Amino acid sequence: METEPDTGPLPDELPKERALGNQAYEAVLDLLVSGGLHPGDPIQERALATQLGFSRTPLREALHRLEGERLLERGANGRLFVRQVTVQEILEALHVRRLLEPDAAARAAGQVPRAVLERLRARVQELLACNEPGNPEHQVLDADLHGVICNYCDNEMLAGIIGEVRRKTRMFSLKRLDRRLAPVCHEHLAMIDALERGDSEEAARQTAEHIDNIRASILEKLARW
């Protein structure tokens, strides 16, 4: 009895596969950013698939994407490893962010729903009151605020480029700058206020100052090493 050749997934299965690939990508990226995977760690595909609850097909798609973004790299033996992001790369990424994110904030000013900004403001104030530098909410909140700016800047290409560059800075091994919790919270509140008022010029200025302060803090910490 003849069997039909396997021609791959049916058309209606493709969106589901893409969705799973995106979910796997986000899951692995979360591990990279949170420190669940460290620079130099080998990627053990089978164990990682089990840990994250994905089949190996969407996981491989995610790993291929992360390799393309140079967050993972292949060693001489062909195995994937977590790539070490250098200080120079971080400073270059911050330079690009400094060029692009103030414009995105200016575009988003007055466009973000008040309820969205109020929730962000409440989270910042709560984080400031707790005063716990190691609180993971610090990094999550930072990503959420900058993500909101990208979502409402009305330029998908600009948002995409910023998102890719921000992933690079989130991978930096000095990302936990303990002295920066309170200053970052106040910077975020100033950004939120400008966005809510619809003040494009001030939103851009506060965002630029925020990125400048990140760069200065990294350089200060490196100088103490």
Automatic annotation (TrEMBL):
Stretches assigned to the HTH gntR-type domain: 18-85
PROSITE patterns per the UniProt record, alphabetical: HTH_GNTR (PS50949)
Positions in coiled-coil regions: none
Family annotation (Pfam families): FCD, GntR
InterPro entries: GntR_C, TF_FadR/GntR_C, Tscrpt_reg_HTH_GntR, WH-like_DNA-bd_sf, WH_DNA-bd_sf
MF (Gene Ontology): DNA binding; DNA-binding transcription factor activity
Organism: Cupriavidus pauculus
Keywords: DNA-binding, Plasmid, Transcription, Transcription regulation
Protein name, UniProt field: GntR family transcriptional regulator
Endpoints of the signal sequence: none
